[in-house]
Amino acid sequence: MQFSRRHFMGAAIAATAGASSTGRALAEPENLLPRPYTAPAEARQAGQPPLLAEALAALDRHSASILDRDRIGLVDFTVHSREPRFHLVDVASGRIERSWLVAHGNGSDPVATGVLQRFSNRPGSNATSRGAYVTSATYFGKHGRSQRLIGLDPTNDMALDRAIVVHGAAYVDPSLIASQGRIGRSQGCFAFENGEVAAVMEQLGEGRMIYAGRLEIGLA
User: Fold this and answer.
1) Residue at 27 is within a domain
2) Looking at the domain assignment, is residue 123 inside a domain?
3) Residue 218 domain-assigned (yes or no)
4) Is 90 part of a structural domain of the chain?
5) What is the pTM of this model?
6) pLDDT at 47
7) How many domains would you assign to the chain?
8) How far apart are CA 180 and CA 159, in angstroms?
């Protein structure tokens, strides 16, 4: 089901998001092939995710659209899908408060390696998009209670039109890791375990940022 941007963006957010869409850049190249990544020991010991600086820069850049800036959702798609890679981060300390498994889009990983191979903002790509999102209203759809997301960057500003949302899914289950080495894939949405998605939405609420990215390592 596709959603029209004008139906769900509030006046303030619409103005900012609309401005970011002006002169829209092309979607990111779709031939980037990352290698699985393990954070350096010092970063793990400090409890701070490797993409934190990038995410905080996005939080500053989009401050007019982010109502609550005490915590953010940070998704490190450098990491294999069998690992918890959606982090709830306390902005003041930079520390991870909680982490969950989260799926990436099947268009981002066509042969189901468990590692995101590319980002795309293109409708019909079924891919994950890089960039900053702001959480919007929740609703009940085919996946139960879900939460709409507004993309704030040229690399993800089609999120509402593509119906990229937070939702629960049976294919995000730790038992699948034991049987196939990875969780399943979404159609570009941030899909969580059915038993955990309510906690994710409760912690994020409406008006907080989710930042999705990855470290570009081992790339030409």
Assistant:
1) no
2) yes
3) no
4) yes
5) 0.80
6) 64
7) 1
8) 29
Residue ranges making up the domain that contains 57: 5-22+33-213
What is the residue-wise DSSP string for the chain?
Answer: ----HHHH--HHHHHHHHHHHTTPPPPPPS---PPP----HHHHHHT--TTHHHHHHHHHHTTTT-S--SEEEEEETTS-TTS--EEEEETTT--EEEEE----BGGGSTT--SS-------TT------EEEEEEEEEEETTEEEEEEEE-STTTTTTTTTT-EEEE-TTS-HHHHHHHSS---BSSSEEE-TTTHHHHHHHH-SS-EEEEE----S--
* CB 147, CB 138: distance < 8 Å: yes
Parallel/antiparallel/unpaired status of strands 144-151 and 131-141:
antiparallel
- Per-10-residue mean pLDDT of the chain, 220 residues long, equals 43 40 39 38 60 96 96 97 97 96 98 97 98 98 97 98 98 96 98 98 98 71
CATH code at position 114 = 2.40.440.10
pLDDT reported for residue 73: 98
